[in-house]
Amino acid sequence: MAARSLLIRKTLATVLRRDSAALGAPAAAHSRGLHTFTLPDLSYDYGALEPAISGEIMELHHKKHHQTYVTNYNKALEQLHDALPKGDASTIVKLQSAIKFNGGGHINHSIFWKNLAPVREGGGEPPKGSLGWAIDEHFGSFEKLVQKVNAEGAALQGSGWVWLGLDKELKRLVVETTANQDPLVTKGPGLVPLLGIDVWEHAYYLQYKNVRPDYLKNIWKVINWKYASEVYDNESS
Ligand SMILES: [Fe+2]
Fold first, then answer.
1. pTM
2. Which residues contact 57 (CB under 8 A, 6 or more apart)?
3. Where's the Manganese/iron superoxide dismutase C-terminal domain (predicted)?
């Protein structure tokens, strides 16, 4: 059990490093030897995903929600940085949930922005090449994958994420959900996120009110499959 826990921690650390690299972590800053994070820029304007996702939602989601995760993640990391040399076990343990929640929020949202693209830049174009073939093999068709993601995303109680991931150990695609801001890796150390859809109310409520299925139906029009395909090709080779 202890060995498994150590393995998961090591894997999480690897994924955090890999995600930071993949995300281009413009991110990294150093203060007193501590690696902290900054809000990544979007590669498109806030209004560029309309009408699927309103500019108002995108601006609030990025500037306020994601920024809050970054701020609170850095705060928790700084407190951890102070507590570690003191051997302050109580504080170290107390910080774990804040690090998981806010660090997860930063990781998940950084992926989410890359999973989206304006229609004029290819948003919504179904995947071709190896990822397209893998989707057909594992789910039957692209349409069946969309149905499965939408069903699981709509059924998720409370706040969380629905993912298309690659299980590197079993070499297959999976659809998973995670609660709150848990990253996909919390469901298995070999899972790599290809596509993560935020189903927190803050991602859709201003436009879709409480009708999460409508948000899920429309988000496919701006999904950036080029990014998911690149990750798939890199991780499955
Ligand atoms: Fe969010």
1. 0.87
2. 203, 204, 206, 207
3. 127-230
